[in-house]
Design a protein that fits this description.
47% helix, 144 residues, 2 domains, Factor Xa Inhibitor, mainly alpha
Amino acid sequence: MAERDWISTEDLKAKATQHGALPALSVAAPRVAAPVAFAAVQAPRFAAVSAVSPVAPASLVSTLALRSAVAFPQLQIRAMGYKLKTKASVKKRFKVNRNGLVKRAQANKRHIATKKTRERIRRLGKPVFVQGKIRKNILRMLGK
């Protein structure tokens, strides 16, 4: 069974009494009569919002959270991947050779070099190749 993206007033009432988060909920009928087709589309999404009335300041927070989650589903937080740099910075930092390999410079060579061995500093001066998913993202940002 698919998970619902709305909550009924009965479920909301039951959760409030179980957890004690909302001391009182008043269930009222909608004040504006809507056409039948519009009411069928609107009812599941906005039923919980119209059913909750802020009684105490403690319930105001949960009411606002409920309104934002139900009325604006696009505002729900989703896990995003790593945000890469802009294309101009990618052009400065990476070079693509004729084989399609992406070359980059290594870090840790700019300062605090006194405690690094000469061998390590020489090794850090050599370029390395980017591999995997990062290489694919860099090529996409470079338009190749």
